[in-house]
TrEMBL record:
Entry's family note: Belongs to the ribosome association toxin RatA family.
InterPro entries linked to this entry: COQ10_START, Reg_factor_effector_dom_sf, START-like_dom_sf
Cleavable signal peptide: 1-22
Organism: Flavobacterium ammoniigenes
Protein name: Coenzyme Q-binding protein COQ10 START domain-containing protein
Organism lineage string: Bacteria, Pseudomonadati, Bacteroidota, Flavobacteriia, Flavobacteriales
Residue span, Coenzyme Q-binding protein COQ10 START domain: 42-151
UniProt KW keywords: Signal
Recorded superkingdom: Bacteria
Pfam families (UniProt xref): Polyketide_cyc (PF03364)
Xref: Gene3D superfamilies: 3.30.530.20, Regulatory factor, effector binding domain
């Protein structure tokens, strides 16, 4: 019995000593890591500035199993916020300040530890130098964890290094892996749709679509309106010089309806039209190149544009279905007046899943 008592006292003294040791350790820390990301500064900044990408490269989130996450309504820029719960820990991260193409400032609460995080972006040879700085205060439990695993600088520094490696991979492979194919002449079938129209900066169309599309989808669900097909954008005007476009963000529906007077969601019907179709396989940021190749094809073929609108884009495969940008697909349709010598367009068949038929597809 005496031996057991001595062992118990020894363990108790060890526990007290360890607790005193942990309590006297500094809870504050300051860490800085840098890496050259092999992509342009604007690409890197825009990617980090979008909360929907954080799960893909922030290591303390991406390594969580059974992750349950929730975004703020705003996912880009100041106010963007992501909250999560996982098997290892829970936390929130929020952007509170942004300097365009220069820096992003965030606050993070992770397992009761509080961090301030700063991202700094600098042009450099071969890409963008990204510096990730953090300072904060660890909870008592996290002080124990870091003390047992080599200290805060080692643990948090390793997380930051892995996050920067993940960021480089996401941008170099996922963002830069893409293909553009000009399919050629097609018949784009019509459909009833619900929409919201406004003028937007072209650079903010994606941000606006992430706000408006869910709103229209919720409207459909609330009113038992059956949706058919993928969301699409009608570009009524497209002014690349001034970065402005008049757009309609649209959700196709099964039957034509009339929305109530005063509703900010309206209804219309897209009439079938002849178009030049281009498919973009990869991140949406390459649409400018897809537009350029499409217009070059139209000019080379001396095709006359028909201009009820500039063009239409369909999000065939998007982030809502697959998070890997390299696997996304966007279809672009440019309304045209086919020449009299144009081959007869074959009517749609059941086998055609893209809602149009193609004639003499050409890849460039």
């Amino acid at each position: 019995m005496k031996i057991l008592k001595y062992i118990f006292l020894l363990l108790l003294l060890s526990l007290i000593s360890f607790s005193v040791f942990i309590a006297t350790q500094k809870g504050n820390f300051s860490i800085e890591k840098s890496k050259i990301i092999h992509s342009s500064k604007s690409n890197v900044f825009n990617y980090v500035n979008d909360a929907e990408n954080w799960q893909d490269f922030m290591n303390h989130i991406s390594e969580e199993t059974n992750l349950k996450g929730k975004f703020n309504k705003n996912t880009i820029g100041k106010g963007a916020k992501f909250s999560w719960e996982g098997s290892e820990a829970a936390g929130t991260i929020q952007t509170f300040s942004v300097k365009n193409n220069d820096s992003i400032h965030q606050k993070m609460d992770w397992d009761d530890s509080k961090f301030k995080i700063t991202w700094i972006f600098k042009d450099t040879l071969g890409g963008t130098k990204v510096t990730l700085k953090s300072e904060g205060e660890m909870s008592f439990s996290y002080k124990i964890y870091t003390a047992l695993h080599g200290g805060a600088k080692k643990i948090i520094g390793s997380l930051f290094e892995k996050s920067l490696v993940n960021l480089d991979h996401s941008l170099v492979y996922e963002i830069n892996t893409y293909k553009i194919k000009v399919n050629g002449l097609v018949k784009k079938l019509g459909t009833p749709y619900l929409y919201q129209s406004f003028t937007s900066k072209i650079s903010k169309v994606v941000k606006n679509s992430r706000i408006v599309f869910p709103k229209i989808i919720a409207f459909c669900e609330q009113n038992n309106i059956e949706r058919t097909g993928k969301p699409f954008i009608i570009y009524h005007t497209y002014d690349a010089t001034n970065d402005l476009a008049k757009i309609s963000l649209c959700i196709p529906i099964k039957e034509a309806i009339i929305t109530s007077e005063g509703s900010d969601i309206l209804a219309d019907e897209l009439i079938s039209f002849t178009a030049i179709k281009t498919s973009l396989y990869g991140d949406y940021s390459h649409t400018k190149e897809a537009l350029k190749k499409s217009k070059s094809y139209i000019n080379q073929k001396v095709i006359t544009p028909d201009s009820p609108f500039s063009h239409l884009e369909v999000f065939t495969i998007s982030k809502t279905e697959i998070k890997n940008p390299s696997k996304w697909k966007t279809e672009l349709y440019f309304p045209i007046k086919p020449k009299k010598t144009t081959p007869i367009i074959i009517p749609e068949t059941k086998k055609n899943s893209d809602s149009e038929t193609e004639t003499n597809p050409t890849e460039i």
